[in-house]
Amino acid sequence: MQASSDLIKRTESLERAFAFIIGALFLLVGIAGFIPGFMTLPAGSPDVAVDAPRLLLDDGYGYVLGLFPTNLLHNAVHIVVGVLGLASATSLSGSLVYNRGFAIAYALIAVMGLLPFTNTTFGLMPIFGNNVWFNALTAIAAAYVGFVKPSELKNADSFSPEI
Question: FRET partner for 107 with CA separation of 20 to 30 A, picked from 22, 33, 116, 118?
């Protein structure tokens, strides 16, 4: 019984810590997108990269840390996702829902980033380039924490070893 209780506590800590870390990461990335010092354009490019797809909303179109294409709407979405992650980290159920929802949404976004007709979310936000692997890696991590770890807990609860 004690081992089961320890497993529950560890799982709750992992769920909440992951939601907090992802929330903080996305909040920081979103804020960085609004700070000119963290935004760059490719060398020799007057506005945006020559090979970058055009956006309907091109305000703030650039690269956070010189790596991740973004615009003002994309930055705002990152801030909202970050704040939701921080808020969800206050409870196990909230963090579990957040981690699972994040995994599903960001896996879909990563796939959209690979497709030429959706890699700008229909002209609203850039999700191509380095955003694809970033979104895919965070989705995989969230899926592990949100789906795999809780299922291990269920399996451990149903298994009661004889002492």
Answer: 33
Instruction: Return the structure tokens found at 104.
Output: 């599903």
Give the span between the Cα atoms of 125 and 55, in whole angstroms: 7
Report how far residue 163's alpha carbon sits from residue 160's, in angstroms, rounded to the nearest whole number: 9
Secondary element (H or E) of residue 64: strand 62-64
Looking up tokens 């690979």, which residue turns up? 114
The confidence score (pLDDT) of residue 134 equals 97
Instruction: Record the tokens describing residue 81, joined without a space.
Output: 């996702």
Sign of CA dihedral 19, 101, 64, 128: positive
| Residue in the structure block whose two tokens are 């800590």 | 13
Residue-averaged pLDDT of the chain: 88
CA dist 17 to 21, 51, 95, Å?
A: 6, 38, 9
* Alpha carbon distance 15, 154 (integer Å): 15
Q: Which two tokens stand for residue 88?
A: 């969800």
8 A C-beta contact, residue 128 and residue 91 = no
Query: Alpha-carbon distance 55 to 61, whole Å?
Result: 8
DSSP state of 47: S
pTM: 0.86
Whether residue 139 is predicted with pLDDT greater than 70 in this model: the reply is yes
